[in-house]
Amino acid sequence: MEKVTPKTLSGFMELLPNEQVLFNQMKETIQKSYEKFGFLPIDTPVIESSEVLLAKAGGETEKQLYSFSKGDSNLTLRFDLTVPLAKYVAEYYNELTFPFRRYQIGKVYRGERAQRGRFREFYQCDIDIIGDGELNIINDAEIPSIMYNTFKNLGLDNFTIRINNRKILNGLFEHVDAKDVAVDIMRTIDKIEKIGKENVIEELKTLGLNDGNIETIISFIEINGTVDEMLEKLSTLNIENESYKTGIEELAQVVKYIRLFNVPDNYFALDLTIARGLDYYTGTVYETFLNEYKSIGSICSGGRYNDLSGYYTDRNLPGVGMSIGLTRLFFILNDIGLIKAQKNSISDVLVISMVEDLSMSIKTANILREAGINTEVYFDNKKIKAKFKYADKLKIPYVIVIGEDEINTGLLTLKNMTTGEQERLSIEDIIKKI
Amino acid sequence: MEKVTPKTLSGFMELLPNEQVLFNQMKETIQKSYEKFGFLPIDTPVIESSEVLLAKAGGETEKQLYSFSKGDSNLTLRFDLTVPLAKYVAEYYNELTFPFRRYQIGKVYRGERAQRGRFREFYQCDIDIIGDGELNIINDAEIPSIMYNTFKNLGLDNFTIRINNRKILNGLFEHVDAKDVAVDIMRTIDKIEKIGKENVIEELKTLGLNDGNIETIISFIEINGTVDEMLEKLSTLNIENESYKTGIEELAQVVKYIRLFNVPDNYFALDLTIARGLDYYTGTVYETFLNEYKSIGSICSGGRYNDLSGYYTDRNLPGVGMSIGLTRLFFILNDIGLIKAQKNSISDVLVISMVEDLSMSIKTANILREAGINTEVYFDNKKIKAKFKYADKLKIPYVIVIGEDEINTGLLTLKNMTTGEQERLSIEDIIKKI
Fold first, then answer.
1. How many CB pairs under 8 A join A and B?
2. CATH architecture of the region A17-166+249-335
3. B9-130+307-343, CATH topology level
4. What is the 3-state secondary structure (H, E, C) of B76-123?
5. What is the pLDDT of residues B160-181, one digit of tens each?
6. Pick from B41, B45, B69: which is nearest to A17 by CB?
7. Model-level pTM?
8. Could you give the ipTM of this predicted complex?
9. With contacts defined as CB-CB under 8 Å, which chain B residues touch A97?
10. A166 vs chain B: nearest CA distance in angstroms?
């Protein structure tokens, strides 16, 4: 028969079992971390009606979509978990309790150009808090504190959550009368480390800014120091603008509360250049960087938005959230060696029989499982060496050997596969030991 | 602004948070049950190349597919987890350890005609054991024993795993020289309860069977009694056919071992009429029924196949597996009232402040979470009644109230929301209590 080559599409992560075990552990850690803060799970479909999903999308995003027709329906695979959340909250508004604290962990789809470390199918792990008409600023501090806890639980330590507030940027651009070139200014500012201050000033001039305003912008982006010093300096810049002032107040509140949530000062920072897309977020914005690997970009981002579901409902539903792109994070951490697959197996014990009759082996496994121990029995009629090789390859921590002696005495041979140590024990003692 | 109606596609299950909590508990129970037997997780993409996914498909299935093009690729959403497994094992053969015990829990897609209780996107929860060239018959007993444990862990009790062996049917049809009308015979036999024995005989005649052969078939399907009686009667039917005899031997082995795996006799049965599609399975086959709700059909099915990956590789990879269609099972159990969403919340505790300063509330929540308790703080500046209403609606089991008194004394008010009981306790005592 003609064979088809078994091939997984490029841009789609598919792991070997040992790496999958590690990936799943990370996913579960994230889930448990979110649940520790009382977030509720939702699970929206991967496929949505294009009309619903694309109410908001457009431009660049649309090219990346997986869209198709089935019967007379136009369908699209979700490209994030935020639009499905917007739909969900609008659709079930009457049945939800607000503030609605939800998490969703699921795959999303973007037909990006395939390149190393970029995925077309990837897990997003989102938390959002949605208010009904209003949402206290404390939520803007709790969200990054949850991410701090999540990353610590994942075993990461050297990271910084960088925080800004869009109102400050908006206010600044209003103040220098340059709202319409805000995007260009941001782009120019971003290059300061690369091209230097003088060149930035030259570029700002070409955008039509006068010297005074350029000076204000430069003073603004040169603000540095501790979090408290930066907040202080922001206030003394003499920018008389409502939005700017509100932004500083909000940022100060976020800083106050994030400390109350026990996030140490060395895990968060203010970064006045973070904007995160110019039309979605309206207040606090976040990005998270691994301090030693800044070049890989933000591993967890998000922010505050005024109006989650404006495309579906007139209700005012403000929210704040962050998202971890788990597939990319896993790839990066694996790539730079910060994580490593340890377990090749889910089993704690493999039971190996030296005799043909497997009754005793199976009964032993039943008892071990009853005691909560993940156990498998080697069934195939192979040489003892092949059986041990199976345990070796899967790195199963313990092997129980059952032969004539063990059946007669009821004392089983337990081999610790890491140390090679071997002893004869009752099943009760084995359970205690493992 | 023109609003888009926020609407989920029909045939796609989307749950409210309280039902989602229950659904996720079931999914986790299934996962833990599979892991107890040492099965390894894999997670294949939802999208595969059509060429790979449809190497095997055809006919009825193809109409239900979600297929589309992206760039110059023809893509299809997976319609089960078996074909992706076949691809996976062929693709990574050299890196896998055999017997390969894998589970996969994920969504699959079938564009069936939408009707109540039928879903176009649904979770399958599969376990399979794949051998390299050979696979011991004991595996055919372990698989249903895992499903027995899984259903018990799900809290189900009144179910029967029905077992047959395709070799018995194949042998019977060979013996009565009716292999080419096997499908028609099976279809006729299936109707015996509806149309009666006489009509079945009439129909068998029209299929060209002679009286002797019809008598053999009728004797065969009239076999009843206990499992052991049935095995005995199968042997005494005087059907001299290799396949038939092998089938009986295998079935007897499966019965012997399923008992060794501690599955009580009232949870499994032989059912000589189960065939499960005539070309895929080659040996043992299973279906699982809720005894009081047989009309809903099998809730967990599977069987033994000779050749998992024949479309991709020349290697002989026999396997045996079963699958739970979780989305449909959840819908049914919910519908007939066998399960009921209890928890509206993930939180164990809600902290409510009577004072404006939330410092003490947040610090209390930090300590509770540190102690492993899922905790949220009510942030919004609302009346105390509104705060309690939130706890009520989410059915959060405990509320901690923090006011001036609590801040001064350090003794917090703990309210049990189920009993209404209220007491003043130190944070340490609260942790012990919850």
1. 256
2. 2-Layer Sandwich (3.30)
3. BirA Bifunctional Protein; domain 2 (3.30.930)
4. EECCCCHHHHHHHHHHCHHHCCCCEEEEEEEEEECCCCCCCCCCCEEE
5. 999 999 999 999 999 999 989 9
6. B41
7. 0.95
8. 0.95
9. 344, 390, 393-394
10. 22
